[in-house]
């Protein structure tokens, strides 16, 4: 056991945990003031809900002993056998529980990302059931496929350093399913639905940027060269995407916006996530530039397609995660990570093909299960609040509180 690696992983776990409250602020500032608490509490309550789920069954399903490359069994139910000695198959220099708690924070933030798609109209009771079932049916299996020992996508050689497929594609495409099934907000396209507090959104974006160093650099699972490389790649991609989104918006709409800068940094962070432990610094900048332009274009396309993804989860996370996973197939190099693979630009076109397969499978499976789950819950519990409650706002009607008393 290495105390330096353990300290770094625990700090990284804390950084990733802090991302979920950061996401709450990021999303909270973008909704109307009558829905700020209803939006914030969705992220905050997930910390409690998924943490308990992960300790009971989630960790065992995602990382436990493999069954057919599809799922882990429940031999680690309630953390049975998950002790303080290292488990060498995942992280040989830190306590097994350190690895478990680090992965817990990934499981927490992933369903929280989806909430931006159905903001301002989803019943809180149904939201809790959906989140729990989604973790069991989507996140845990895909995490096992990609990261678990014996997972079939892992066995194909697909690379996902910190969650491009597992976190961002699953949540992003599930957000698309949610937007389609839940339907548009009352007054969408007619009423003013502009963000009510952009300083809050920028603060949330800054917290996400800060926490993302734990997300990506922490995924090295050790303090050393690889964590340093991932840290540098993460920052450069975020910086480049902030610039490219703002300049794309400036050219397209004649004004550079604060919301654009905040959205751009998140798009860059999303896109570099799968690649961060496999690419060199200049490749990270290229990925960031591409993410800013491509994700901005995807968000602009939303209006033409006509679905109401309230806070642009699809354009940033689904598109950005897919872009990053494919870019890993281009720019990955064993110069950065000997445990990875070379991509197309380093003479190995097979990696790009495997990455494309992983993206396609994650998209199709996550969308299909999420769509079916939402349809089922709509029939049994109902997804939306009533029109009157939606007009009054979720803060008062779902929680009996107001975010502002003036």
What's the helix-strand series? HHEEHHHHHHHHHHHH
**Which structural class matches the secondary elements?**
mainly alpha
Oligomerization status of the protein chains: single chain
- Helical proportion, percent range: 55-70%
Q: Order of strands side by side in the largest beta sheet?
A: 1-2
**Which of globular, elongated, flat, extended, rod-shaped describes the shape?**
globular
Number of helices: 14
Quick take:
The chain is mainly α and 406 residues long.
Give a written overview of the molecule.
The chain is an all-alpha fold and 406 residues long. The protein contains 14 helices and two strands; from the N terminus they run ααββαααααααααααα. Strand 1 (66-67) and strand 2 form a beta hairpin. Helix 4 runs antiparallel to helix 12. The protein is globular and about 55 Å long.
Topology:
Elements lengths: L2 H26 L7 H28 L2 E2 L3 E2 L23 H19 L9 H24 L4 H5 L7 H19 L15 H19 L8 H29 L4 H15 L8 H25 L7 H19 L17 H32 L6 H6 L1 H6 L7
List key phrases describing it.
mainly alpha; single chain; 406 residues; 2 strands; 67% helix
